[in-house]
Design goal:
The protein has six helices and 17 strands. The chain has 379 residues and is of the alpha+beta class.
């Protein structure tokens, strides 16, 4: 195969050697030519002196369109860059707004917390969880001249004090009403023991001796002397504090009533010592029965417990931090007693049961437990 160049367009014309000298034409521009004559002859399709390539002409319309596409691409890139800058600015502004909102929320939440005071128990959390939320220790220990007294944190909260008319052994002085206790407090995990009384007062008036048994045969007046001597901010609980602490979120007769029980004497038997017959002859060592959800023992039975209040009728409506009547009356010059005892029937041991006695009365089934107030809100 041989080849030659068209003298007009420079295109390559290939031909077989036997056709050399014959007339033909350029396949590209149709210029007439004689094969192998008048141009450089190329062997093996390699041109010895190739002509420079001729650039294909570009139509003006095509040039205009290409320029438009380039400009459009450039404009798009500029718009994208502008949009990215705007997004960055919005992001910075948004982050700033969020930060300001967070600060405002924290300030307002702190202010609200200070106005509302202590958080209220939500009815589900444990005492330890509430203590963390309130920023308080879950327990407290008091040294009574070498005898240690353990106290547990009782949350602030709201509850219905009293009993419904349908409750077994209900009395007409247990009218239900809403009570708010706005401050948490610490309460004795157990009833005050004879060992603790002995350490503070130097004597033991109890009829049933036992260092870890609850002290009894102490009057309300006697207890005032014990608390002055013991110090540490010890007080008797108000009646509202006592019932709130006893119930620990329950609404039944006894705090041990559960899903598969029937609010019966058997439920009371798991919670405390009460009169069951010939085997009920004395007090028992504290802390042997089932504690309630706040970690308190013997809130039902063992010994009845003095409260700070004078005995009187409940308020007609809701009450906040009630402390009972300002004084006793001629017909009822009594201080409140709660919780029932080893000598009492199940009706007296109910969470809502209310009794009372003269402040100077002493007997072997009446004792007490103490509370300690938390003086101020922890920041």
């Amino acid at each position: 195969m041989q080849a030659m160049q068209c003298g007009k367009c420079g295109g390559t014309v290939s031909f077989l050697p036997q056709f050399k000298g014959q007339a033909s034409s350029c396949p590209k521009c149709t210029t007439p030519l004689i094969l192998g004559v008048g141009v450089a002859e190329v062997v093996g399709a390699q041109i010895a002196n190739p002509a420079p390539p001729v650039a294909s002409p570009v139509h003006p319309v095509e040039l205009s369109r290409a320029e438009e596409i380039r400009r459009q691409r450039q404009l798009t890139e500029q718009q994208d860059e502008k949009f990215r800058n705007q997004i960055e600015k919005v992001g910075l502004i948004g982050a700033g707004v969020v930060a300001v909102c967070v600060v405002i929320y924290l300030i307002s939440a702190k202010g609200m917390e200070s106005r509302l005071g202590w958080p209220y128990w939500d009815g589900r959390e444990s005492v330890a969880e509430y203590a963390r939320r309130a920023g308080l220790p879950a327990t407290k220990e008091v040294n009574l001249s070498g005898e240690r007294m353990q106290l547990v944190l009782i949350p602030a909260g709201k509850y219905t004090m009293g009993s419904p008319a349908t409750e077994k052994k209900q009395n007409d002085n247990e009218t239900q009403h809403e009570v708010t206790l706005s401050e948490p407090f610490y309460m004795g995990k157990y009833e005050v023991t004879q060992g603790q009384w002995q350490a503070v007062m130097g004597s033991n008036p109890s009829g049933f001796k036992g260092s870890n048994n609850p002290v009894e045969r102490v009057s309300w007046d006697d207890i005032q002397g014990f608390m002055r001597q013991a110090g540490n901010g010890l007080k008797l609980p108000t009646e509202a504090q006592w019932e709130w602490a006893c119930r620990a979120g329950t609404k039944t007769q006894f705090h041990t009533v559960g899903l598969f029980s029937w609010d019966s004497d058997a439920d009371l038997g798991r919670a405390g010592w009460y009169y069951t017959g010939a085997d009920s002859t004395s007090t028992r060592s504290v802390g042997q029965k089932q504690a309630n959800a706040f970690g308190l023992y013997d809130m039902h039975g063992n010994v009845m417990e003095w409260c700070a209040d004078w005995h009187g009728d409940y308020p007609a409506g809701a009450a906040k931090d009630p402390a009972g009547p300002a004084s006793g009356t001629a017909s009822r010059p009594y201080r409140v007693l709660r919780g029932g005892s080893w000598y009492g029937n199940p009706g007296f041991c109910r969470s809502a049961s209310r009794l009372g006695s003269s402040p100077d009365y002493r007997i072997n089934f009446i004792g007490f437990r103490v509370v300690v107030r938390i003086s101020s809100r922890t920041p």
